[in-house]
Amino acid sequence: MKRGVVSNEDRTVNGAAVTRDGLLGSQGLWFAVWGSMAVVAAIIALEPRSVLSGRAGSLLSVALAVGAIVQFTTPLTFLTRKERSLTAIVCALFCVGQVEQRWTTSHSQVDFSAYYVAGGLASEKPTGQLYFQAEFPDGRIKVFPSGELNGWLGVEYRGVSASTAFLYPPLFAVFMKPFARMSFSSAYAVWTEITVICGIASLWLSLGFAERKSNLTMMIPLVVGLFSYYPFYQELQLGQTGAVILLTWALGIWLFFRHSTWRSAFFFALATMIKITPILAIPLMAFYRKWRWLIAYCCWILVLLGFSVWQVGWAAHVQFAKRLLPSISCGVPVAGNTSIISYVQELFLRYVPLLGSLPENLPPLACSISKIVAVLVYVTCIARFYLGRRELDLIRLLVLTMLISLLISPISWWHHYTIALLPFIYLWNEKRESGRELLLSISVLIIGTNIAGFAIILLDHGWFQLVAAGIVPCLTVALVYFGASGKSVERGGLESA
User: Fold this and answer.
1) Do the Cβ atoms of 423 and 440 come closer than 8 Å?
2) CB–CB of 314/170 below 8 Å?
3) DSSP-assigned letter for residue 135
4) What pLDDT was estimated at residue 144?
5) Omega before residue 221 within 30° of 0, cis
6) 18 beta partners
7) Cα(first)–Cα(last) distance of the chain, in Å?
């Protein structure tokens, strides 16, 4: 070592080597800061009334955020430009998430109560009636009737009343039967653990779709982002299913591009039987002539359907297909529903209704035209995918279809955007042009913080609400449109099957 010059790893601090990037740019300090942020974000999201929710916890969150920001000012040679920009977005989500989550002091468990009761009814012999529908005069289902949020269905299991309607296929009630054997609090705790595991596993698979293998350096910031991401946080609050659906989609895509046709088809079929919208990806398989996969998918659908009928009977499936699906096909024009169907109906209404003040009737043609718009959006996207199939690989189109499913589903609550995490991570690793990078960054920040949703609630003027309500659908359309342009990036181990 020359006088006044420190070579690459010649100087130590407390016995630890310091590289030429300095202490602030060391990988060890990086793991310490972001690992601590991950722990804080997880505790606040899972335990809103923990010791970290007080003033001391707030100061700790501020200190960690400042530490992460300071690190951005130093060269970090172990991170690429994309990784640095991604961690900046995650840091912003962490800062906003810490503020938003401290406004909520408890988990409502509204949706999980419906799953728990449905699992209990499915366990009965004979099977209890799974679907209890209160409807508006025009036939739309009352998801949250005004002033009747507690036990409005008039059915309960083990003293637990469903606080909202059960809207999932009968097979999902079958999967909830083991939970119904537990106490409600224990079942909710186990469900929360499963949600967290599915979310983290999905992040790991999402990194596997990137140009490089998964690694701990980026996995830790992504965990911070997961617990700071508003849709996932709301999912934990309500006990929702987004992380489970995300994992089944991710496994289906991941296994397909590793030539595991039957296992891939199984997870796609499972996702379809939990939430119908994954079926939107099936035409893509026909475009690329994946006939063996399509045969496997149909076989698994029949197997799962047969298992579901064996468990809860044929009548529940008939009721779901003939009564429930038509009832929810018009959606719910309300703040919190981000689908294009809801937005078109809100344009007819000229304002955005809030929960508890839903209109008894929709304007003439509002339901029909909103459905037509959704169909046109889907057909346009599929046609664009078909025309670009020679330049775009199937993995990108399957990922983009996840965004389309959120866009045209009759009901896409804020927490449903949990499944957008895979498209966000995938597109981030493929982005090349600065314009698309900016679009993706804005989309992640607006959806991840739910700024548009809070604006709808806070704004009083109808037209301002309509502008805010249109932000997320428009961003989703833009992401799909620009995501389906340009050539795909080569990804070594992810060849087409």
Assistant:
1) no
2) no
3) B
4) 59
5) no
6) 11
7) 55
Q: What is the 3-state secondary structure (H, E, C) of 287-301?
A: HCCCHHHHHHHHHHH
Q: How far apart are CA 26 and CA 14, in angstroms?
A: 14
Burial label, 122 (beta-carbon count in 10 A; 0-12, 13-18, 19+): buried
d(CA 412, CA 277): 11
Over residues 437-466, the mean pLDDT reads 88
The answer to whether residue 36 is domain-embedded is yes
Please report the DSSP string for 411-469 in residue order.
--BGGGGGGGHHHHHHHHHH--SHHHHHHHHHHHHHHHHTHHHHHHHH--SHHHHHHHH
Domain count, the chain: 1
Asked if residue 61 belongs to a domain, the reply is: yes
CA 359, 364, 366, 372 dihedral sign is positive
Per-residue burial over 59-85, b if 16 or more Cβ lie within 10 Å, else e, is eebeebbebbeebeeeebeebeebbeb
**Contact in structure between 338 and 412 (CB atoms under 8 Å):** yes
Task: Calculate Rg over the CA atoms of the chain.
Answer: 24
CA 350 to CA 178: how far, in whole Å?
A: 45
Segment 160-173 shows an average pLDDT of 85
Structural domain of 81: 11-103
In this structure, how many other beta carbons lie within 10 angstroms of the beta carbon of residue 321? 12
Q: Which residue's structure tokens are 């007080």? A: 54
- Give the integer Cα–Cα distance in Å for 441 and 88: 10
Confidence of residue 370 (pLDDT cuts 50, 70, 90): very high
Q: Which residues pair with 13 in a beta bridge?
A: 16
Name the 3-class secondary structure at 337. strand
Q: Identify the sign of the CA torsion 54, 57, 63, 64.
A: negative
Q: Report whether 39 contacts 46 (CB < 8 A).
A: no
CA distance 162 to 146: 15
Tokens 């990804």 -> residue: 491
Looking at residue 72, its pLDDT comes to 75
Alpha helices in 278-365 (DSSP H): 282-287, 291-312, 314-319, 325-328, 340-349
Q: Is residue 434 part of a domain?
A: no
Task: Residue count of the chain, please give it.
Answer: 497
Work out the number of other CB atoms within 10 angstroms of the CB of residue 129.
12
**pLDDT computed for residue 148 by the predictor:** 44
Strand extents, DSSP E, 3-134: 11-13, 16-18
Task: Report how far residue 99's alpha carbon sits from residue 228's, in angstroms, rounded to the nearest whole number.
Answer: 10
Q: Which two tokens stand for residue 211?
A: 């140009």
The whole model's pTM is what? 0.87
Does residue 309 lie within any of the structural domains? no
CA distance 403 to 424: 9
CA distance 181 to 478: 45
Residue with tokens 């790893």: 9
pLDDT of residue 259: 86
- The tally of CA atoms less than 13 A away on the side-chain side of residue 60 is 17
